[in-house]
Structures are given as C-alpha cells and as structure tokens.
Predict the structure.
Amino acid sequence: MQKFVELGLSKPIISALQDAGYTEPTAIQDQAIALILAGNNILASAQTGSGKTAAFALPIIECLQEPGTKPRALVLVPTRELAVQVSTQFKLFAKNMGLRTVTLYGGVGMDQQLRALRGKVDIIVATPGRLNDCLERRAVDLGAVELLVLDEADRLMDLGFMPQVRRIVSKVNKDRQTLMFSATIDDKITRIANEFSEKPIIIKVHAERVDSIAIEQKFMHVTEFNKDALLLKLLGDFASEAVLVFTRTKRKAGWVSDRLQDASVVAEEIHGDLSQSQRERTLKKFRSGQVTVLVATDVAARGLDIPTISHVVNYDLPDTPEDYVHRIGRTGRAGKTGTAISFISEEQRHLVRDIEKVVGFQLETGGAPIRKAAPARRFRRSGRR
Ligand code: ADP
Ligand code: MG
C-alpha cells in the first residue's frame, strides 16, 4: 500500500484500493500516476491487462477530490461494454469520495442518462456516439472538463471514430489535461495524437516482445471446412472456465455459436447486430460463468476485463495486427497466464505477415491433426437456469 501512498494518493482512495485487493501499483500505474498528478499530458502504451484503467482513474479521482456540479473529467472509450466496465472501476475507486460518475452509451434509452446529466456530475465515461447525441440535445456541458482521457486511444483515432471524437474534443477547454492510453500506439498514432495534445509525455511499458510470458500464442493451419471440428476438439481439451472465440463477421459469430450449441457447448454470441440488452445479458452470463464460450466479433476485442478467460481462439484472423494484440489480450491479465490459438486458413494467409511484425516472431506452421472428440463435461449444456 505504501507505494500507492508515495505516488500521491490520499486516504479515501488508498482505503478503496485496499478493499479492492490492490496492494501495489503495476508498472504503468507506477509511472503514470505521479506524472498525471503533476499536471502533464501523457500518451501511454502498456500491455493489455496491465492496469491502465487505474493508471488514469486514480489520479483523476485524486485531482477532483470534492464533488462539484459540472463534469470535470471525461473519459472516452470505443465500446458500450467498455464504458460500463470503466465507469464501474471509477465508482469503485471513488466510493469514499462522494464523486458522481455518469455513463453514456448507445443502444439503450436516453431517458435515464439524460436524467443523470440533469443532476450533479463529476465524471463522465462515454462512447463518442451517445455523447454527441447528448451534446446535440444540449443535455451536457463540457465547458468545465479539466481532464480528458482517450482510452484505447488508437481505436478512437481511427477513421470511424475520429470525426465524432473531434467534435467532442472541440467542446472541451483547450487548457485541459489530456491522457491517452492503449496497448498499441505506433508512430502514426503518436503523430495524430498531437492534434489532441501538444507534445505529451510518452510512456511505454512493454515486455521486450508482445509474446510476453503471460500469453502463450499458438497457430494452426486449417481449412475453412475443418475450423468447426478443430474448435470443438480444442474446447474439449481446454476444460476451461471461459473461452472467447473471435470471428470476422457478425453472421459468422452467430453461425459458430449455433454449431457449438448443437454440439452441447454452452456458447453464446456477442456482436453489433444484437440489441444492447441482449449484449449485456450475454456478457453478464459469461462473466459469471453461466456461459463458458463466448463467440464474438471485434466488438469484444478491446478493453474487456474478464479474469476467468483462460483461452482466446481466433477462429478467423483479425483484419489488423492491432486487433490481434487486443483480442489475445483478453486473456493473461493482471499477472495471470493465458493461451491464444489462431486458426490460419489459406484465405487469410496474407494477414500473417503483419501479425508477425507485431508479435515479433514467425508464426508456427503446421497444426494439430483433428481427432473426433466429445466436448469435455464442463462445456456441456448444464440445463436451463
Ligand atoms: P488494461 O486496461 O491495461 O488492459 P485493466 O485496467 O483492465 O487493464 O486491468 C486489468 C486487471 O488488473 C483488472 O482486473 C484490474 O482490476 C486489475 N488490476 C489493475 N491494477 C491492479 C493492481 N495494482 N493490483 C491488483 N490488480 C490490479
Ligand atoms: Mg484498458
């Protein structure tokens, strides 16, 4: 605990950290917290699962101290589920401070969020789309924001999000402090980041290579036709609490999840074609262990922290090497180990090179022969609950 005290966090936060079972800061927290408390802009990259959320949330809470009226901290994240997760972290760390956190994200009715915005707000955690809706309705005033966070910053700066993020940032005071975090920040992102913050302090906390000890990475050469059989066999072998399977499209996610269910695996799908209430229900079941296999699109690739995930399977390779890093980073979090297995089919062969560049080694070739095997008992449907 002493380490957290030395970084400049005060009693109520320390005691919340104690309750959360945190005993000492992770490397990124160790480096970022004091710099943020000293008022610096930062662009920080640190591995998946290394505690980046607390690295910005703790100093923000420390800076805000007393509850106020208008939002003074704004955290942007790329997905709805991540908004909920990050805001839960803020509430946890700030529980002894009386600060109010409001979460704004799409796919659910606006009424409750609008009502929350009419009250006193200290911290907003939002996805760009819904926050812009709120801005258009003049339901939120960002004029008092002193601290701006872009979590998964490189994602928020990609073509899809950038216009939305620009619109939001233009409403925030120029004198603000800007904090940008991701596991994947390259030179291009560093250049783009200048638009939001001139010359931020750059922090990098990475193992030598992305294939750090935490995540064992395996690759298997497959054909499109034997992916399902191989996946079923692997699931039987894992005997794991929670497995996350990524597909390239929403349709494929549904299709794979159906195939698994046919084979009595307790699987569900999550992707952008489902209603937000379905997405939330499914994620909740996965977090609690009621569902053992979640088949997802890249909507689940970023930021989600589900400690029980022991295996990630790339049923299809992702389009970008960054997505690869984030996908496999759903396992091997907070000091735990995990395994990532990627299927490489001839059709996706062209993606391998880029991934090799990011992971820093040549992907193994070959692949296990497929034997017919029944799914392990833990994956069998355990009756409706
Ligand atoms: P990242 O954003 O870097 O991927 P998260 O912020 O989601 O990682 O944190 C990953 C996990 O590590 C979470 O479950 C979080 O509660 C836990 N964690 C973070 N910091 C600490 C710490 N100092 N001590 C113990 N657990 C921590
Ligand atoms: Mg994160």
